[in-house]
Amino acid sequence: MVIIWLKEYRNKTITRIFGGNAYYGCYFLALSIFSFGILRDTIYHKALLEQPKMALLPEPYATVVPAALIGVGQLFVLSSTWALGITGTFLGDYFGILMNHRVEGFPFNTLRDPMYVGSTMCFAGGALCILDCAALRREMTWFAGMEQYLIAFTTNSRRLTFVSRRYMSYNKWNSSESLEMTIYNGFHQWFRLLVPEPKDRIPITPIFLLYWSAYHVPFFFLAYLARRPDTYLMRLLLLPTALICSIVVAYRYTWTISSLNVYNWGQSLAAAVQIAKALEYALTPEGMLKYGEVAPGQLAKASNGSPNGARNGYANGHAYTNGHGHPLPRSKLRSRWPAWLTDTIALTHSLRGLSFTYSKGIHIPAHTRPISSRSAFAKSTFISFVKNFLLLDFLESVIKLFPGVGDPSGGSMFYPSLPLVQRYAVSTFVHILTGSSLLAGFGMVYDLCTFIAVALCDDDPANWPPVLDNPWKSNSMHELWSKRWHQLLRRTFIVFGGLPSYHLVRFLIPPMFPGARKQLSEIVSVVGTFLASGLFHEVAIYTMFSPTNHATFSSAPIIFFGIQAPVLIFERLFSSLSKVLFGRKMRVGGWPGRLWVWFWMFGPVSQNMVDSWHRRGLGSGMVIPPFISPARFLLPFIVPWLAKVAGSLYGGIGITGLVGREVPRADL
After folding, report:
1. Are 166 and 201 found together in one domain?
2. What InterPro entries does this protein's entry cite (predicted)?
């Protein structure tokens, strides 16, 4: 915070963000300081509750003294704020907002620093209320020392050195543990504060909606700053807060209803995406640029001499593509919303980022819906949404028919009571149902977001190309992952794994070996990207722990996604060596390539991954609420027939009905 104050004092950074309005900037800083104060008080109170208790004062002093300290302390704090006003209290002078006269009344005629003294009295009174001797001693030393630390920071270095040494000597005197153990215990407590044990998580209630909104404010503001020039330092300082809030909102709160357990996975996946976005937005010095920009909101000179934006193309070669090397058609429709709002929403919600430079190289499927008219596009999108909704509803309902897989506690799709062939026939069927459900779910959610963005928010239809490019037609794993499969999480995996591994290799290999440096960095970045994908899926599903299901971690997703990198490398080697082996250049493709894809997507490696999800309750999750589910009304009438067919084919599995009753097994 001190650095932000100095940036405002010297460069007017906050004032420029708010369009030159110093009062708006000061009010924003006041809100930030006040919000962090609430967070500090909450953490302090939680720490007090976890400390051992000891009565320090006899009655009635044990009640009177803390009440007096808190009362007098609040009097000093509130009267200081009243005398100085909002701008006077929260550093208005840094914004050039000065008071008309010197404040000499109460409480400044009583104490030199009434607000600091009042705060210290409030914290000391709080410690006495909870009868915490250790906290009281820490409070009187730590809090007062930190206040003096901040004062010394802005005055002279001698006092700073004195206060720092005094605090360090205090810690050394009070420490009975080794330095390593102290660091470990501190880190472990901090981690468990953010990611509690499953039994310690907070059940989600309606009030969680308010918490959810508050936790996302830092990330939204970070996205807003990413589209403002000269905000790099502020984004760096805001990054820790945005990361912590993203983790807390996903892992501290849990859906306790068994059918909603899958939502825990969903909110953790969303948090991981948000963390990747926050890292990129904060660590990119120039901010998040759109095609044709040299700075946020500042267009480069067009190749034809007119600044018409990325719609006309630029000399830097950036252009929208549809995956086939042709420019993606852009409509001339405009939004009625201000640019700063649409840019912020785009950065916080857009996954492919088609108008931003970080989407360079991404495959964009060709449009299948009319983009010249919003009404025609919205109508086509709504029809697609209904189709995907009905398909997902049917597939989800059928998955719940399988015992174990459809139970809230989860279960394996490999039934050990079946012979080997029948066992894998059933597991393959459940596996295909699960994959088809995911594809239908992608389409349904994307159609809904598209409809809202275009029909209600006046977004450009050209910004919403199809999310999938018919993955069933993939003739190689390279074609599947780079073109056919959705590219929504492409940037997330690159940020988490691709970029760090790429730069790590370039750091380790000296520049005197440029060829090896380039090739190895590219290969390792692919490996890092897929490993990040595996960890992304597994770390998020950790939140689906339930008391009846103790499967908390599985290596199957990490193995499946991790092995994709060697598979892609093998396809590249096959293409390179085919001329030597077969006398002509060949690629993995055709019907052999299709079988190759099916082996990896439907074979034992991928089935183990899906099985690990079902064992943790994925199949029982409520995606479509029963009261709007057509399949829930229709399937009970055909469940006996399905049970008879399944029993005749697979022999005595037993099928759990949609209406919560066990359908009798069919005998051969």
Report:
1. no
2. PEMT/MFAP, Phopholipid_MeTrfase, Wax_synthase_dom
